[in-house]
Amino acid sequence: MKDMSLQLNRSTFGNPANAGNVLPRQAADELFSSWVLNPRLQLHMKQVAHLMKCWAAEKENFDEADQWRWELAGLLHDADWDQWPDQHCKKIIEELEASNIDPEIIRAIASHGPLHFGVEPVTGMDKMLYAFDELSGLIHAYALMRPNNYAGMDLKGVKKRLKEKSFAANVSREDIDDACARTGVVLDELINFIIPRQATVK
Ligand SMILES: [Fe+2]
What we know:
globular; mainly alpha; binds fe (ii) ion; 10 helices
């Protein structure tokens, strides 16, 4: 969610001394459910969180602690969108900084829309969060219009929707192209990664 762009005008986030600090799952869930009331947005954030965790586990071979750091970035990346759209990105970043959270997680959230917030994605976590964010939204919009939802969905169908500018018009194709190029992962591979994994998130 980036319709209301707010340039952050910052390039450093969090305190390096807090590297490795995370919110425990229960605290993260509490923040999530008190800040995000819209069920559609909740689902989107859970989907992105799951994709981040799966990528960390399957592609990066990270241990459980690092998987949770990736998942947490996904889970909270739009946390302030629902109730504070005019402070989107800024508010959650400041909250996590005040909680002494790992700067990599904060930076990943800050850079999930470089064309909007003005923060460049640098790390793998930054780039994958950016890429999964928009692709996940487009693929879910496609699932909602299909009679069998995710069942039988394939790459070809997703790419067709991607080319139809009127479909899920709020999903920026410019962001998708930009994000994909930055990851160095081919778009087809990203889409094929997302479909079966996102299908399991309820
Ligand atoms: Fe998002």
